[in-house]
């Protein structure tokens, strides 16, 4: 359980910064649910982590605003498997995916002009629609 979490080459979260807690799962499942603590709650404070530099911390703070708890932690719950170890692996994988998505630099949008053909098709469509609407009016004296 105490392994470092490698997000990508050169970016590793130390095991000491990941706080794992095993709790009992809710929902149906008979006696096993009531006896075994197989659900995993994984907590990680990205803004206090030594694994990220200042630029990465700022990007995480901006992108994870809605996911951070009052204590500044990202909390991941995993209870889809019956075994605690598989739930832990699932939680670690989801945390890694979440952090990598938040750290990804957005692509710059390159402005493009519409093609001459697309402009022509758009105007033809507008003309056709205009003709349809013009033909709907009631005729006086017919």
Descriptive notes:
The chain starts with a strand and ends in an 8-residue tail after the last helix. 13% of the residues are buried. The strands form 2 sheets. The protein has a 3-stranded antiparallel sheet, with helices on one face. A two-stranded antiparallel ribbon has the order 1-2. The protein is an alpha+beta fold and 142 residues long. It is built from 4 helices and 5 strands, in the order E-E-E-H-E-H-E-H-H. The model has no long low-confidence stretch (mean pLDDT 88). Helices cover 38% and strands 17% of the residues. Strand 1 and strand 2 (11-13) form a beta hairpin. It has helices at 31-35, 54-63, 84-103, 116-134; strands spanning 5-8, 11-13, 18-23, 39-44, 74-78. The protein has a domain at 5-103: Double Stranded RNA Binding Domain.
């Amino acid at each position: 359980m105490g392994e470092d979490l490698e997000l990508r080459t050169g970016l590793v979260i130390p095991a000491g910064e990941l706080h794992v807690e095993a709790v009992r799962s809710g929902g149906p499942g008979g006696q096993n649910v009531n006896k075994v603590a197989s659900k995993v709650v994984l907590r990680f404070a990205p803004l206090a982590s030594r694994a990220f530099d200042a630029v990465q911390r700022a990007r995480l703070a901006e992108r994870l605003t809605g996911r951070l708890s009052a204590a500044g932690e990202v909390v991941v719950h995993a209870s889809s498997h019956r075994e605690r170890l598989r739930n832990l692996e699932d939680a670690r994988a989801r945390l890694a995916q979440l952090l990598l998505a938040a750290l990804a630099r957005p692509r710059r949008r390159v402005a493009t002009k519409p093609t001459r053909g697309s402009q022509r098709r758009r105007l033809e469509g507008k003309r056709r629609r205009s003709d349809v609407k013009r033909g709907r009016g009631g005729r006086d004296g017919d």
